[in-house]
Amino acid sequence: MSGKFITLEGIDGSGKTTQGYILEKELKKIGKEVIFTREPGGVPGAEEIRKLLVQGEKDRWSNITELLLFFAARRHHFEKILFPAIKAGKIVICDRFTDSTVIYQGRNNLQLANLIKQLHLSVIGIIPDLTLIIDVDPKKALNRGLKRRSKEMRFEAFGLEFQTNARNGYIELSKTDKRYHLVDGNNSEEKVHQLIWQKVFNFLGF
Asked: Which of 41, 54, 124, 143 has the fewest CB atoms within 10 Å, counting from its CB?
């Protein structure tokens, strides 16, 4: 495939969505064909599944049921947006991908971690070209997330310990492959964008 696949990762409230919009805008300014999307969601069917995952009580699903819902949304998103756009040569920026599932559902659970690997290989099969992990102090990120007061608060409801554990998981993950890059998200919005832009600039070879 001739396109490029860039993912943004990080704990809830780390600023991924904001930075994704800024990156999309800057790439379009220099004439690139860009799509910014998100997971779970990105297309109507997957957005319906998203509501099931990010709204409601934190214990509404068993671990495996939750995992299968994530991959149902991801497969639909893959079919409708990701694969066609990358195949067409576009730059796709995605707010979360399978790495989020590895951290949130697979961390500290070997059975689920193995199932995630199997599902990704069998029903998705693509790996991002570049993954930018926005690293933010968990307390700061959680407070930021809680201030949004949206309906999508299910994962914030797991609390600070859960977010801290996820952050540690991302830091460990960043050391496992060269496609991962940690970005200090404790800076200003503009500074974080500059750090991200430098990574993307180098990756795309401008």
From this structure: 143
Residues 6+ apart with CB under 8 A from 155: 12, 54, 58, 104, 162
Q: Is the separation of the CB atoms in 24 and 36 below 8 Å?
A: yes
Q: Is the dihedral of CA 72, 73, 79, 82 positive or negative?
A: negative
The first and second tokens of residue 132, run together, are 């930018």
Q: Are 35 and 85 in contact (CB under 8 A)?
A: yes
SS3 category, 153: coil
- Rounded to two decimals, the pTM is 0.94
- Interval 75-92: pLDDT, tens: 999 999 999 999 999 999
Instruction: Decide: 22 and 11 in contact? Cβ < 8 Å.
Output: no
Q: Residue with structure tokens 């790439």?
A: 27
Q: Which helix (H) or strand (E) holds 71?
A: helix 63-77
First to last CA, the chain: 20
Residues in the chain: 206
Nearest-angstrom CA–CA distance, 168 and 16: 17
Pairing outcome for strands 130-135 and 180-184 = parallel
**DSSP symbols for 86-105:** HHTT-EEEEE--HHHHIIII
